[in-house]
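Lab notebook: predicted structure, single chain.

Context: the supervisor wants predicted structures on file for every construct in the current expression panel, including those that have not yet been purified. This is the next one on the list. No modifications to the sequence; it matches the entry in the shared construct table.
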Amino acid sequence: MSQRGQSLVEFALSSVVLLLLVGGLVDIGRAIYITEALSNAAREGARHGAWFDAPHQSHPWLNDTAIKTAVDAELATVSIPPSTLKNPGTTCPAPTDGNLYHNPPYANSAYPATANQAWLYICYNNTPGTDPAAQGQVDLNVIVLYSYGPLTPLISAQFGLFRLASNVHMTVQGT
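Prediction complete. Output recorded below exactly as produced.
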């Protein structure tokens, strides 16, 4: 019985599994990288909004435009397109588990429906649209939600989009 070509067949069969493992590892690494980028962007936006201008006794960057600019600048460093501000004048998304801080899960409707887009929610005392500078103490939440689309076709076909979230909460003391 001839054994010619056996190695080629074995390699062809095993290479499919090997490529799926490598593709999955690349997707997991990429998802972790993007999660860190979202966390940095939310933290930078909240830090920027909470910054206090001591000589003028004011919070000049405690507004949606300045915070969004800081978040988008951080997202651009990792080639994520600018975020879309989703809640001017409305409330932030409610967590689905009652946990208000530390990246709570949100309803699927709070995330972008299209892959690889970021949505931004900015909340002051969980009621955006108010004048935070006139309130004394302000609770600032900067929430960045992202729908991650895996590169590996088998993973995206099986699981669809993965939803990544970053929520940074800061208390801003008034003047």
